[in-house]
Amino acid sequence: MTIWIGTGGTPISSKERSTLSGLERLHEMGLNCMEIEFVRGVYMNSEIAEQVGELAKKLKIRLSIHAPYYINLTSTEKEKIEASKKRIIQSCERGHSTGADIVVVHPAYYGKLSKEECYLRVKKNVKILLIG
Fold it and tell me: What domains can you pick out in the chain, each with its CATH number?
């Protein structure tokens, strides 16, 4: 059994505060995993994501992705739902490119909705995401 210990985000003490230098710093520290945090938006392009994945594999560092917090699949505004879907898809694409094991998404919040209505709206929009 392997125990995975790492950081959420790039370690502060890394040289240039990039994901790539963060992986190198984690390796120096003897840690073996990192969550790539897209808290305020998906900032990483596909090319960099592939480089991150290659380095993580080389250093034997396990990756996960945290999708932006600005996601709400229960919004009453269609534009917000569409923007949320785009952020989820981008996070999953970067997760695939990096070889991440998991993509964490907080899909909605209750607002004025009941738990049941919130669940049904999220379920509907996730189905749409999965089907295309």
Answer: 6-131 (3.20.20.150)
